Amino acid sequence: MKYSVILALVILVLAVTSCGAPANTTGKLPPIATPIDVVVNTTVGDNSTLTTTTKEINVVDLSVVEKGLSEVAWITPGKVYIGNLYPGSETEWSVRIHNEKTIPTEFLVYAKTPDSVMEGYEKLPEEFMKWIVVDRKLSVAPRSVGDVNVIIRMGPESVAAGKKYEVWIAVMDNSQNSMVRTELCSRWFISTK
Amino acid sequence: MRKMLKRSGLISKIGMGFLAALTALIGVVGITSGAQAATSDTIEVTATPAWVAISVTPDSWLVNSLPDQDATPDPSPALRTGDSLIRRNATYYSNPTLVKGNVTGPAGATWADSECLFTLTNNSTVTADIYVSFPNFTGGQTMTNGGTGTPGANTFGAYTYVSGGSAAGILAVADNSTDKVKADVAADNGTFKFGLKLLTQTAKWTVQGTMTSTVLVSAFEAGETATYD
């Protein structure tokens, strides 16, 4: 009896330990510097007759794209999709900013409530804007790029589970001193569980 | 043997122990099932290879800065133009081809290219949607954007108008416009022309000096009808 009870308690302890607080999953992702599509090499055939075919599928040379935009300030990516975010979890991605000027330039980076949303999504409520953790300013060297890390840290609110939210990460050249200023926005789509 | 075990109470003890273990097992299953729905999963992140960039020229509008081009200048002070001073309870357009400075709307039912001061170029690699917001003025009288388009005692109204668009324009509020000024501007240097319409407050000015508003033109990758699961 005593040993059965002890066995039961041990099982309980193990269960509670393994299924305790939600794990924080940080999705560390590679820098945005690799081609989106790849060159595929396929080898077919048997040992006696090997045949190699190469299939090229829409190879995207990022350096060519970015060279074509060297005279303007730009940001990338245009859209980020985050799926399966759950209460207490977090993930991150980066926004790349290009400084087209010949002098170092400071950019403001901030989360922003969208002006409109994609079909099926709703604006990230104001009370959940705290999920977005991003540095406010980034200084980018002349004719160069800089990456800003954006962390999405979902709170424990269960009411936010099973939702689809859109939020924008906005970037503005802080050196603009004219009446008309431009702001570039990256659209982030968050699907929660 | 059985009698012996029963007499010693061992069977009942074994039974109770088994029951305890079974209960614990049920508890484990219960706890595990309850926690799995909210504690682990694979978070997926996907980014689209799009570069967003726009430029707007010119980058300023000095309201009421055009000289009166009318051969017979209007004697009314309210319509006196070109002195870069704005009057209360007046309407101004960023229209470069006006006869009377910045106070005239479109010549036709819709705005022509020549009547729009600003040119926006979409340098993005994707089509872009555009919003314009017209924040409160700072300095001088510090007019605030009333948000309705209709000026009040100390509030102004503002609109964005686009080439080919209606004379009324699109309401521009202080923080995020309510409607897109332009949707699906073509990628790779697609352009469109637009202008600003300002309706000044109705109350008399109480403070002299230069007022400045920083009009914000926001661009983002155009939307799609498909949804992400």
Which features would summarize this protein structure in a list?
heterodimer, A: 193 residues, mainly beta, six-stranded mixed β-sheet, four-stranded antiparallel β-sheet, 2 helices, 44% strand, elongated, disordered N terminus, B: 229 residues, alpha+beta, seven-stranded mixed β-sheet, three-stranded antiparallel β-sheet, 11 strands, 24% strand, globular
What would you say about this model in short?
With 193 residues, chain A is mainly β.
Verbal overview:
- The complex is a heterodimer of chains A (193) and B (229).
- Chain A is mainly beta and 193 residues long.
- In chain A, the strands form 3 sheets. In chain A, strands 4, 6, 7, 9, 11 and 12 form a 6-stranded mixed sheet that branches.
- Chain A is elongated.
- In chain A, 12% of the residues lie in helices and 44% in strands.
- In chain B, the strands form 2 sheets. In chain B, strands 2, 3, 4, 6, 7, 8 and 10 form a 7-stranded mixed sheet that branches. A 3-stranded antiparallel sheet of chain B has the order 9-5-11, with no helix packed on it.
- The longest helix of chain B is centred in the first third of the chain and has 30 residues, at 10-39.
- Chain B is built from 2 helices and 11 strands, in the order ααβββββββββββ.
- By secondary structure, chain B is of the alpha+beta class.
